[in-house]
Design brief:
The structure is a homodimer of 492-residue chains.
Chain A lengths: L11 H11 L3 E3 L6 E3 L1 H20 L3 E2 L5 E3 H4 L3 H8 L4 E4 L2 E3 L7 E3 L4 E8 L4 H11 L8 E10 L13 E11 L2 H21 L6 E4 L11 E8 L5 E11 L1 H6 L2 E3 L5 E3 L1 E8 L1 H10 L16 E6 L3 H20 L4 E3 L7 H10 L4 E6 H6 L1 E6 L5 E5 H29 L1 E3 L3 H10 L3 E5 L4 H11 L2 E6 L7 E2 L6 E2 L2 E5 L3
Parallel strand pairs in A: 3-9, 17-18, 17-19, 22-23
Antiparallel strand pairs in A: 1-2, 4-8, 5-8, 6-7, 9-10, 10-16, 11-12, 11-24, 12-13, 13-16, 14-15, 19-20, 20-21, 23-27, 24-27, 25-26
């Protein structure tokens, strides 16, 4: 199949792109910066959606759908939010094409069909949603409003990379409204916890929960919380964010409610989102030079069964057994592929499913039938083991569990090893250049220092960890006092 | 709660809008022609999606995602398709806003950020998908390609109506590629069958399968198949379409494959879709003057339990029993709401859940506890029955089944009564004006006659039914010979 994946060591960036393309996850489209998510990649997204959607519903949220377009006048109502996204908005200005009189068979924008007011293709939906919430919220009885939306959004990025940064991407965006600041902050933190649990339990990707510095905050938020993950090349990836919006959008759209005492109060808000970017994180957290390594909880195929045969007769015999194993596994709820293509060699198939990150491979040949055995290979460690055919179905659940755990523990050990405490600016620069990862350092909490460090090292403050201990120290850059370390890293 | 639903008899159109709004299904947004799908309405869409998605996967399809935008040059490649949608396309021309020097705090489109090539917001995705398929299809081994996409699309409609016709709507669009015409036609018909089965089994809405006349065909299709439903006001609703595209898109985008003999051939295509319009059909097929009537298979809440109480003590006693019934029903997979709000009267709650179309209502009072009974009301027939408390959980599955069947049979009887055979043009006009429904008449198969009848009666040919018998006859308009009746109707 001509795998030819660039090794991580020789070019991590190219390795990533090779993997995305050769494992059939996604590709660039004919539209600048927009990707096509191919069926195999999309099926990972579906698994993510299912798990997240259940977690959202279990925490009391419901789904709804708001318009793709935001009239410019609504878009600009919350000024900081508008300013933050203005530079990367796709704008609809016309609503009709007509035949081009100059070019037979071609179309042109009909100048007579110009919109009175331009429409922004949503880069995020706070504006359109809060302009709607104004109609939905009158009394404290209407609160809290706990709504999520699965949608596509568009941010006109100049430098794009499949999954990690694309002009259009798929995501979910939660938008909640509350009667008190305390409730809204609790919601913001609850959803951060949901994201962290999803990342660690389903993606097997350890994350650090923290708060963003003011400079890295979501435009229009009072506080932005985030989960930060560590990729194999030592760069950080922001995997999800949860924003406490204060009363900023209530102010911008005049959203008020009558409290129990009959007085008018302004509503408090949150918003939170994760996107198809997570697929990029999933790839970069676990995969190797042979291809994807997928955690079983998100793998589209759990087990692939590959027959080893020399004749059609042998294939028939092996197939009967393989199909009965597949059937039993499917009854247990696993997704199983039996690859009986007769024009490809087993070795080719082995490589293909390694590339695609299928957690467990079972090979069955004629000799196995005689011996009552199968060969089982796990993708994460590449271990192969001969197992009793009768026992295999019973062993699979624990094996998949073990793979899920192993992948997580490996990523956790890697991440832990990639957190380095430093006490001087020289150390910080040295660690960034030589080791990468998160650098834990004191910072004086000024934007000035943050910007200087960013300019000089290309590292940003990924977060102020929520669980960081209070510790007297001095800012590595300015020497001013600091009470807590923050995490710096170069990031995607 | 101030229901105030207009009766169907006094104003069917207004009744529909009242229902959509008062049952909290959807509302108009601040964006012209675009709706907000509210949580209750969206949960019906989620149920539809789940059922359809499973049917698509069971017939071998996989999901993927293609860009929202279509570059104008791709959009215009298949000329008929482009011509068909050109008049209703939202066009992105710019990719940036900037602060408006004339108006502090306001934004304007940045004239320097004009796109070299305009982007059409997809009204349908054949163009962008076939331009991608060109890269994916080389050999007969790459076929068939069976892909579906869940997405939003935009068609700039001038007259919109919630769910039935909106500028943006949600849908699924299947796009398949095949080696032979026969295979593609079989796929087209298979998906029509899937839609019909979904409409009848899940929506409890009988449909007629047929082919569209040339004039009503999807732009770019060789043949369009459809399912047509009958609404309570005697107007037809096109509920789903499945198109045999021939080689039109293969031609437009140069999609060829090497067959088994090593020769190049052009690929054959299909596309098929249903949309949030189905929610409009669902409402209009079954609901009454008190509100929605939802078939249990798509109802977000299957059973609502309402406590009848005079004191907190009574409420507590009733709650214990209600919650145990709710728990048992949930374990059986049903969605149950126990409405224990203490600020609303039972009668108010009864009306609210009737409005929302919850199939089964259980009321429990103190006296019921003493008698070991509950009062069960079904939404479809409004029948109330006192049942044994111990038996209720066991009875619910059959009761929901019976409701599903009753709704379907009622709609079927209505639809059958609304098909009228006519043999003259006068009869056709009379039936359309006085009775409505489908009018089964002979037609000479010319566009001229079709257009004349449409102009004069506002009725269109809904379809040429697939199961229509061959029958010699004369066109009701021209008197020319015809071999089969077709169905005329006024339609949504």
């Amino acid at each position: 199949m001509g795998k030819e994946i660039t090794s991580r060591e020789s070019d991590y960036s190219q390795w990533y792109i090779d993997l995305v393309k050769k494992a059939d996850l996604a590709e660039n489209s004919d539209v600048r910066g927009c990707m096509v998510i191919k069926p195999y990649g999309y099926s990972i997204w579906e698994k993510m959606q299912q798990a997240l959607d259940k977690m959202f519903k279990d925490t009391g949220h419901v789904n709804a759908y708001f318009p793709l377009f935001v009239p410019k006048s609504l878009f600009e109502a919350e000024e900081k939010n508008a300013e933050g996204f203005a530079k990367e908005c796709a704008i609809v200005t016309h609503y009709r094409l007509k035949t081009d009189p100059a070019k037979p068979g071609k179309l042109m924008v009909d100048p007579e069909a110009k919109l009175e007011e331009e429409l922004v293709v949503r880069p995020t939906s706070e504006a359109i949603i809060w302009s709607t919430y104004k109609k939905w919220i009158q009394s404290y009885r209407d609160l809290p409003l706990l709504i999520n939306q699965w949608a596509n959004v568009v941010r006109w990025e100049m430098r794009t990379r499949l999954f990690l940064r694309t002009a259009e991407f798929l995501w979910q965006e939660g938008h909640t409204a509350h009667a008190t600041a305390a409730e809204a902050i609790a919601e913001t933190k609850q959803m951060l916890d949901v994201y962290a649990e999803f990342a660690e339990t389903f993606m097997a990707m350890p994350v650090i929960k923290g708060k963003k510095s003011e400079g890295e905050r979501f435009p229009g938020a009072v506080d932005t919380y985030c989960i930060e993950a560590m990729m194999q090349d030592g760069k950080a990836l922001q995997a999800g964010t949860s924003h406490f919006l204060g009363q900023n959008f209530a102010d911008a759209f005049g959203v008020q409610f009558t409290n129990k005492e009959g007085k008018l109060e302004k509503v408090w808000g949150t918003s939170w989102g994760v996107s198809t970017r997570l697929i990029g994180g999933l790839i970069m957290a676990h995969s190797d030079d042979d291809g994807l390594v997928l955690p079983p909880k998100l793998a589209p195929i759990h087990v692939v069964i590959i027959p080893i045969f020399k004749s059609e007769e042998e294939l028939n015999k092996v197939s009967a057994k393989a199909e009965s194993i597949a059937k039993e596994l499917r009854q247990l709820g696993f997704s199983v592929k039996f690859d009986n293509r007769d024009n490809l060699k087993p070795g080719f198939k082995f490589a293909e499913y390694e590339l695609k990150g299928v957690p467990v491979r079972i090979a069955i040949g004629s000799r196995d039938l005689d011996n009552g055995t199968v060969e089982v290979a796990r993708r994460d460690t590449k271990e192969k083991k001969v197992m009793q055919m009768d026992a295999i179905v019973g062993e699979i659940p624990a094996l998949l569990d073990s793979i899920q755990q192993t992948i997580y523990q490996r990523a956790l050990a890697f991440r832990e090893q990639k957190i380095t405490k430093v006490n001087t600016y020289d150390e910080l620069k040295k660690v960034l250049d030589e080791k990468g990862g998160f650098v834990s350092a004191h910072w004086d909490r000024t934007a000035e220092t943050e910007n200087k460090i960013k300019e000089e090292t290309k590292a940003t403050i990924r977060c102020i960890p929520l669980d960081a201990e209070q510790e007297e120290g001095k800012c590595v850059y300015s020497g001013k006092p600091s009470s807590q370390r923050v995490l710096f890293a170069r990031a995607y």
